[in-house]
Write a structure and sequence with these properties.
- Helix content is 60%, strand content 0%.
- It is mainly α.
- Helix 1 packs antiparallel against helix 2.
- The chain is globular and about 30 Å long.
């Protein structure tokens, strides 16, 4: 799966859950600080991402994701070869 497709699909998840504008989703945008995600939002994003991409994200991996770009990198790594 190409990163562009991953980003399009992940962007929809984040926009729907956080109710933010697509223009706010920049690689360096921090989920908590810039996008105002709380812990429940983060859990919902992880669950929806796992379902959407058919991947599993451990708690340890999720804790390392700080920015929108971090999440895209993780999803890209997890979907390689799928």
């Amino acid at each position: 799966m190409e990163r562009k497709e991953i980003e399009e699909r992940f962007r929809k998840i984040v926009v729907d859950i956080l109710n933010v504008e697509e223009s706010e989703l920049k690689v360096g945008a921090a989920f908590e600080k810039d996008l105002y995600a709380d812990s429940l939002d983060s859990i919902e994003i992880v669950i929806e991402t796992e379902w959407e991409f058919g991947i599993s994200i451990s708690d340890e991996e999720a804790e390392k994701v700080v920015t929108y770009g971090d999440a895209l990198d993780l999803i890209t790594r997890k979907t390689e070869g799928l």
